[in-house]
Amino acid sequence: FDFDEEVDPFSAPHIPPHAMFDTDSESDTDNNQTQTPLRPVQIQSTQRLREALTGGVADKVLAVLSCMDRVGLNLPLFLDFLSWGDRECIVNAKIRYERTALMVSKELPDILERWRSPPRVSGGRNIRSKGARPAMEGFAFSCITEIIDKELEGIGELAMCPSDEVSDSGLTRFLIEDMVLKLSSPALGSTPRLWALLQKVSRTKEQARKHTKKSSDLTILSVIFQLMYARSHHHNRWPKFLTTFLRAQGISAKSLDLLHSFGLTMSHKWSMRAFTTISANALEKVRQQVHSMPFVISHDNVNIPFRTFSQRLDKQRHFDSGTAATVYFQPNQLSSSCAVGEIDLQPEDERDEIFRQAILWNRDAMRYVDLNEAIRKGDVGIMEETLPYLLFRFAGGKNSKYTIEVLELLQCLHREWPADVKDFVKHRGWLMNLTGRHNGFYPIDRGQEHNIRDIKVTHQVQGPNASWDLMKRISPAIPTLVRVRKHMERQIQTLRRGSFHTDPAKTKDIERLEGVYRTSEIHVQQDGRRARAKADRVDDIVSLGAAHLFSRKTMQHWWEHRDFARSTLELWE
Question: Where are the domains of the chain?
Fold first, then answer.
């Protein structure tokens, strides 16, 4: 039908009472929109009107506007009153019905989009109308701000890190993968809309079109925690975790304070206080565990140069020597395989000197391989069986100090120590394993060297305040820093670069060595063959060592230096 002056354009098709007050319509207060059915009756009504629409649309719109003029309304006032702007309009059933028709209509998104960006008139040369872009963008900004603010408030507890969690177990409990899942999932205490927004703006349209495999999870995670830290200094779980990791990597104080100004980390001052707390907790844990777990103590010398930037008479650079010690706890007893038999030594009176030296090399090299493999796999049985060979080798190679050490160990193992002490030394005092892998053993003194490296290099004290006292306060925190660093590296693969080194391919080297062996025939018996030069002759230092132990009074000198009265007085500071 066409509108005319006698027809009220605000009239609507007759709606039966049962449809007017149907449950598909809005509630009396229009606050129950979330329960609107998937396809309300208003949508069907709008669709029928669109299908039945005939004639010029502009004429109908002009008729409606003309009628509005007659009743003293314009479009802004009409939309204001229709949109919950008047008490009577809120409760009137007819107005509620039409308002719901607009709110649930398929046309509403298109209407809003055209308000934001009106289409250019076909063939026109005028500048595109701004429409309602400023108002809509301001409104959208306020909506986004409200939504994000509510989501950030919901993860406040997740972002907190109490002081009692600044510990080994507390810091390593932070799992990046779990945190990404918690924040991105649509659940209570998460930030799904903020995550989706940051994920959208972190990828260009070109990247999305090409399906670039670029993960921005770490970037988004860091941004969210930066926002939380900016809102409250109590939301510091990520900054504390990142600060501890960077200190474990040896970051400087200025670099740490720079990152702190960006909201990424805690301050250098906090890190020093945290290390004091970690050190105190670590020492207290050691004091408790020595009463319940087997342990060994390793110590070694540490030489540290203390540098002074502005020297004075009472403040000059100096070089000090000290002792670093580490307590290793071994909660689980280590197992050992059966000791393998000793490798038979070849006869010393072989006539072919070159062939004999090749056998000596193979024998010694295999001993080295056996010992290295036994250490790596924690086989203390093979290590004990290797002690006589090492004794002969050290004695024949004129390594007097190592000879005495092995003699002392053999004496204690076979003559002086009771069975429980001997078992403890072999299974607890030779090797350590901090990884839990079957091939992750290494000598305790090597572990001590690693700790000294951390003290001298990675976590060295620097600047004018460097002192033994500062080093003493920081050192107990180093194991926690190392664990946090490894914990972080296991989660982010790019940080593992440089941790493992692949050996170059050995194929060409072995092929060349095989060719030399075949050509020289050093592994083939040739009677009367001799080394050409004196430097080419190799002594059997193992056999020489067995003879030197007795002929050169090595055993006698060792016993004379250990057989004397010893004081049992113990002085403790």
Answer: 17-118, 141-279, 336-432+506-573
